[in-house]
Design goal:
Elements (H helix, E strand, L loop, with lengths): L5 H13 L3 E6 L10 E7 L4 E4 L1 H5 L10 E5 L2 H11 L5 E5 L6 E5 L7 E5 L2 E6 L8 E6 L4 H9 L4 E2 H10 L4 E2 L3 H11 L6 H13 L5 E6 L5 E5 L11 E3 L2 E6 L8 E12 L2 E8 L2 H20 L3 E3 L7
Parallel strand pairs: 4-9, 5-18
Antiparallel strand pairs: 1-2, 2-3, 5-6, 6-9, 7-8, 10-17, 11-15, 12-13, 13-14, 15-16, 16-17
Helix pairs in contact: 3-8, 5-7
């Protein structure tokens, strides 16, 4: 018997016989897959019923039939270690490279792989691998840093003058002075002038002071910077007009306790009826996250000796 021991079935058969019932075996069709070759059933001639015996034994089960469930780990090292602990020949790793919610997933009981059929060294066909349940999994959600999430949340969002000034002030520590080669590279690639942190700090101070004042003039300078003039006494702390840079550099880690990256941010503003709306746009933040996910996927595949794929498995957990 594939599911129940012969001794157990015989014991049930003896009890059934005393009750006027019959225990017999029903064979599966020859082409049936994923089921036992035969199963024991309990026949009740009086009621004309045939019932399986499995549920009788399941009530007394002290271990599950198979491994299932999803373990959720918080570090890449734990993901690799736990995957190695459970991995079998047909296990596989999947990577979700969505830069806003990246993750790795091990499916321990993944479908069996196909087997090539060879004839004198020539592959003539393949045997389709057995399907599997895909219910035993290990999941690792990449922990994006709080700083990174804060910038991503506000990316491309229209901010009023007060909100923009306060955001820059709160995150001034994540601004970086551009390197000489960065200034040249990004100004040629994206246009405009790259700002230094102190310039943005002065800008935020000036904006907070004059948050309720209307803009009277808005021009674009040859350098690519913008220049805003406010009504009445709207000047920065030196009494000059406020100059708005078009680019600045961020330095922050995309992942919690990870290595920091440097990326440019475009700064734009719109003037309408005397009010200014501010928008900043991180330049290709997806690249920095996706590259790290790919590196970690390759490391996990290498250290577990399992195949890795970009995407998600076809079966539900």
């Amino acid at each position: 018997m594939d599911q129940l021991s012969e001794t157990a079935v015989n014991a049930v058969a003896d009890l059934a016989h005393k009750a006027g019932l019959t225990v017999t075996s029903v064979s599966a069709p020859s082409n049936a897959k994923g089921v036992p070759t035969s199963i024991p059933v309990l026949l009740d001639p009086k009621k004309g019923e045939a019932n399986g015996l499995k549920q009788l034994f399941d009530a007394w089960r002290d271990t599950p039939e198979r491994k299932s469930g999803t373990a959720r780990v918080t570090t890449l090292d734990s993901f690799i270690a736990l995957t190695k602990r459970h991995a079998v020949e047909h296990s596989a790793i999947f990577a979700v490279t969505d830069w806003k919610a990246p993750s790795l997933l091990s499916v321990i009981d993944y479908h069996h792989k196909n087997t090539d059929i060879e004839d004198e060294g020539v592959i003539t066909g393949s045997t389709i691998g057995m399907p599997n349940n895909g219910k035993h999994r290990i999941h690792y959600q990449f922990p994006l840093s709080e700083e990174w999430q804060a910038w991503v949340k506000m990316d491309k969002q229209a901010l009023n003058q007060q909100a923009f000034a306060e955001f820059i002030e709160d995150h001034i520590g994540e601004l970086a002075a551009p390197h000489e080669d960065e200034v040249t590279f990004w100004q040629e690639k994206l246009g405009g002038k790259v700002a230094y942190p102190h310039e943005l700090k002065l800008l935020s101070i000036g904006l907070k002071v004059h948050a309720e004042t209307r803009v009277s003039n808005n021009v674009t300078l040859q350098s690519g910077e913008g220049e805003l003039t406010w009504e009445e006494t709207h000047r920065d702390h030196k009494g000059d007009k406020l100059v708005v840079p078009s680019l600045f550099i961020l330095q922050l880690p995309p992942f919690f306790m990870g290595e920091p990256v440097r990326l440019p941010v475009r700064l734009r503003y719109r003037v309408r009826e005397g009010s200014v709306t501010w928008i900043f746009q991180m330049y290709r933040p997806d690249v920095y996250v996706t590259e790290q996910v790919m590196r970690d996927m390759e490391r996990a595949a290498r250290e577990t000796d399992l195949p890795a794929y970009q995407g998600t498995p076809e079966m539900q957990a």
